[in-house]
Design brief:
By secondary structure, the chain is an alpha/beta fold. The chain has a single domain, classed as Rossmann fold (3-Layer(aba) Sandwich). It is 41% helix and 17% strand. The chain is built from 6 helices and 7 strands, in the order βαβαβββαβααβα. Strands 2-5-1-6-7 form a 5-stranded parallel sheet, with helices on both faces. A two-stranded antiparallel ribbon has the order 3-4. The longest helix is centred in the last third of the chain and has 24 residues.
């Protein structure tokens, strides 16, 4: 199942709470020297909130491989350096489904549905002010970027949050609050068959 939502909405925390295997789609970001990276409108750097900064094709391939074989090798990405630092194997080990979570997950809903590998697509939403606070605290704690960059990005995303959720809904992800999302995942888990 695909789990998306604005940066800082709690996707990683919710994914961990499900107890299911988790494919971190944000690890499929392009590297800092990729010539296809989009720029911010003011030219002040890379627009890491654009789906064009992300390798959707590789993400779909990992989802499909995980569904087909029960395992895949995914990149490990360091946001602070905007670079891949390695890779790791993810195995289902018989789990009936897995969560593929990330801010661009909605961008692959249609493709996953077309390929027959989509169980559900959820957009985690909450209060924009809460999302802003969570995102800023997390990004500062992890040293993801410089403080001015984080504040500028946070303010931009706070103002855009409603439009982000609406875009994800239009791409096929159902907007849900945390408790509703957990309930939907629990119901899916009860009806899914274990992976061979």
């Amino acid at each position: 199942m695909l789990l998306t939502g604005p940066s800082g909405s709690g996707k990683s925390r919710l994914s961990a709470r499900t107890g299911l295997p988790v494919l971190r789609l944000d690890d499929f970001y392009k590297e800092h020297d990729d010539p296809t990276l989009p720029r911010l409108p003011d030219g002040a750097g890379t627009d890491w909130d654009s789906p064009l900064s992300w390798d959707a094709e590789a993400a779909v391939a990992a989802v499909v491989e995980l569904c087909a074989s029960g395992r895949t090798t995914a990149p490990v990405y360091d946001i602070a350096t905007s670079a891949r630092t390695g890779e790791e194997e993810l195995r289902l080990d018989g789990a009936p489904l897995f969560v593929a979570e990330g801010i661009f997950a909605a961008d692959i809903v249609a493709r996953c549905r077309e390929l027959g590998v989509l169980a559900e697509a959820i957009c985690l939403r909450g209060r924009p002010s809460t999302t802003f606070r969570r995102r800023l605290l997390r990004d500062l704690r992890e040293g993801r970027k410089s403080v001015p960059v984080l504040l500028r990005r946070g303010w931009r995303l706070l103002r855009a949050e409603g439009a982000i959720v609406e875009r994800h809904r239009a791409l096929g992800a159902l907007p849900c609050a945390r408790d509703e999302a957990m309930a939907r995942i629990a119901r899916l888990r009860e009806t899914a068959r274990p992976h061979a």
